[in-house]
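>> received
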Amino acid sequence: MDNAKTGDSQSSVIKQVCIRLLANREHSKKDLLNKLLAKGFQEESVLPVIEELVKEGWQCDLRYAESYTRYRLLKGYGPSYINYELRKNGVNHFDLEPVVIKNVGNWLELAEKVYLKKYDDEVFLERNEWAKRSRFLMQRGFTSNTINTLFDHLNIKFLGAHR
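>> returned
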């Protein structure tokens, strides 16, 4: 009986910690688990509490994915980066498109905004400068197709060379 009370008490503490974390921002199940393990709780004690929070609507990976995607879009990150981060945090299948359409229009519009914030609208570039600017956008998570479309859209050309 004493062990049952200890287990209930620990579950209550775990639940309070989770709710406190979730009150600040959305967290994925994996993120909550990792934070609780770092605080010294045991996985077998944490998992049932997280599942209870999912059933009660406190935690939802879909809400987390939408929130995280919106946050990263507003910071100027592309689909490859956002999908990688979501997978790393335990969300493997999430359709970014509805969030993109609602918040930034489309990937090309976002790439253009990010590009023009960092670079001027110079249209003739040396090969090294073109490559540098392409790498910047790739590191931000934009696909090579989006980057090429953006450069075509902005009429960016190599100086003395053809792409």
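>> Residues 2-24 form the longest helix (23 residues).
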